[in-house]
């Protein structure tokens, strides 16, 4: 384990390891996930109209870790062998016993993830989220919820680990914007801890 860079957001804190995985490890994991994950094109419904979300995704976790966001209900697929040691390492780095992971595939610069916080009820009151990036470098931004002029930008390289600590989801939104740059695919894994079932589950 190496020491992270600490980025104070006030309120909230990021812990950042720009080179958490060596290049060859990150490349191997990227290739395996790209090939082996059963990627889903999920849709969301806004004002009665359905839209494909601008990325592919997959949800893995312990039994019972159902996750709902933007009207989607994600049932966990069992942990693939390749992700189990990674989950354990990320958990010990972040000091949080993660029991699930959302895996996103951004196929090109047109794929994205809009402003949001990971604040669903099943994550509990002050969740810790750990985000591992693989593949193309993409720009990750945070924006304070009550003062939108306060922003923070990180260009996340392959193999980097970013832990959003307690207080971040309550006070900051984050996004992965589209880019017109000609970028290759990127995979991002956000490890989460589901602590209770969502309402109505
Ligand atoms: O792709 C990223 O870096 C961010 C992913 C994200 O915001 C999410 O899964 O909630």
TrEMBL record:
GO terms for molecular function: dioxygenase activity. This is Alpha-ketoglutarate-dependent dioxygenase AlkB. Keywords: Dioxygenase, Oxidoreductase. PROSITE patterns: FE2OG_OXY. It holds the Pfam family 2OG-FeII_Oxy_2. Residues 97-195 form the Fe2OG dioxygenase domain. Coiled coil: none annotated. The keyword Oxidoreductase applies. InterPro entries: AlkB-like (IPR027450), AlkB-like_sf (IPR037151), ALKBH3 (IPR032854), Oxoglu/Fe-dep_dioxygenase_dom (IPR005123).
């Amino acid at each position: 384990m190496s020491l992270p860079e600490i980025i104070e957001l006030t309120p909230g804190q990021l812990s950042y390891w720009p080179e958490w995985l060596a290049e060859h490890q990150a490349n191997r994991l990227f290739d395996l996930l790209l090939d082996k994950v059963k990627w889903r094109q999920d849709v969301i419904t806004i004002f009665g109209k359905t839209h494909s979300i601008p990325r592919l995704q997959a949800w893995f976790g312990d039994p019972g870790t159902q996750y709902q966001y933007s009207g989607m209900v994600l049932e966990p697929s069992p942990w693939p062998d390749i992700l189990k040691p990674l989950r354990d390492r990320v958990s010990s780095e972040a000091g949080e016993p993660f029991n699930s992971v959302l895996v996103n595939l951004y196929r090109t610069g047109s794929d994205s993830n809009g402003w949001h916080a990971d604040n669903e009820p099943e994550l509990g009151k002050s969740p810790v989220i750990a985000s591992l990036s693989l593949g193309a470098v993409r720009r990750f931004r945070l924006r304070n919820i009550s003062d939108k002029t306060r922003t923070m930008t990180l260009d996340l390289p392959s193999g980097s680990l970013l832990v959003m600590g307690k207080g971040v989801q309550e006070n900051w939104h984050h996004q992965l914007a589209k880019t017109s740059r000609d970028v290759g695919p990127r995979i991002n894994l956000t490890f989460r801890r589901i602590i209770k079932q969502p309402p109505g589950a």
